[in-house]
């Protein structure tokens, strides 16, 4: 076999393997561009967070004290199914002091399989924060709601 024949054979085999690779690469570039622009859009719009008792802002907390003054309401073992610029939803084991016979003598009661919703994001000096929370839980066989708002909190002023 001559050198020219070997070169021709090598080039034809190279073309058979290189063409699919080049096509795959060309198809991957638009997909990477779309993925990169999705990441860039997430970076441009900072995530909405929630204000914790220590003044920190947090995203997707699994445990979260709602009422900072007395810690008589909290989210525990929370799993967030959505968290976006409009709101956040999840399931939680809701903890609340039912104040029976009175608050100082009452332990927290826990309500598994409760749902939680954060909403009404507003611009603050700490960034965008959710200002409302609603927990739905079952108490004595009845669906009950607990609502909380941070909108009067001085930390929410710009």
Question: Would you write up a description of this structure?
Answer:
The protein has 2 domains: 1-44; 50-156, no CATH class. It is 27% helix and 41% strand. It is globular. The strands form 2 sheets. A 6-stranded antiparallel beta sheet has the order 3-4-5-6-7-8, with no helix packed on it. It has one helix at 3-44; strands at 50-51, 57-58, 64-65, 73-83, 88-97, 108-124, 127-139, 142-149. By secondary structure, the protein is an alpha+beta fold.
Provide the fold topology:
Elements: H1 3-44, E1 50-51, E2 57-58, E3 64-65, E4 73-83, E5 88-97, E6 108-124, E7 127-139, E8 142-149
Antiparallel strand pairs: 1-2, 3-4, 4-5, 5-6, 6-7, 7-8
Backbone structural class: alpha+beta
User: Helical stretch count?
Assistant: 1
Shape: globular
How far apart, in Å, are the first and last alpha carbons?
A: 82 Å
Flag low-confidence runs. 9-44
Order of helices and strands: HEEEEEEEE
Round the Cα radius of gyration to an integer and report it: 27 Å
Estimate the mean pLDDT confidence.
80
């Amino acid at each position: 076999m001559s050198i020219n024949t070997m070169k021709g054979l090598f080039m034809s085999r190279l073309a058979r393997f290189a063409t699919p690779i080049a096509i795959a690469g060309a198809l991957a570039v638009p997909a990477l561009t779309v993925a990169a622009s999705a990441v860039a859009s997430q970076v441009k719009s900072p995530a909405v967070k929630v204000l914790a008792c220590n003044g920190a802002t947090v995203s997707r907390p699994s445990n979260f004290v709602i009422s900072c003054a007395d810690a008589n309401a909290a989210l525990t073992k929370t799993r967030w199914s959505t968290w976006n610029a409009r709101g956040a939803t999840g399931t939680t084991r809701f903890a609340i002091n039912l104040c029976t016979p009175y608050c100082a003598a009452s332990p927290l009661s826990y309500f598994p399989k409760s749902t939680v919703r954060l909403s009404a994001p507003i611009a603050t000096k700490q960034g965008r924060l959710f200002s409302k929370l609603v927990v739905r839980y079952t108490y004595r066989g009845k669906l009950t709601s607990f609502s909380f708002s941070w909108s009067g909190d001085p930390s929410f002023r710009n």
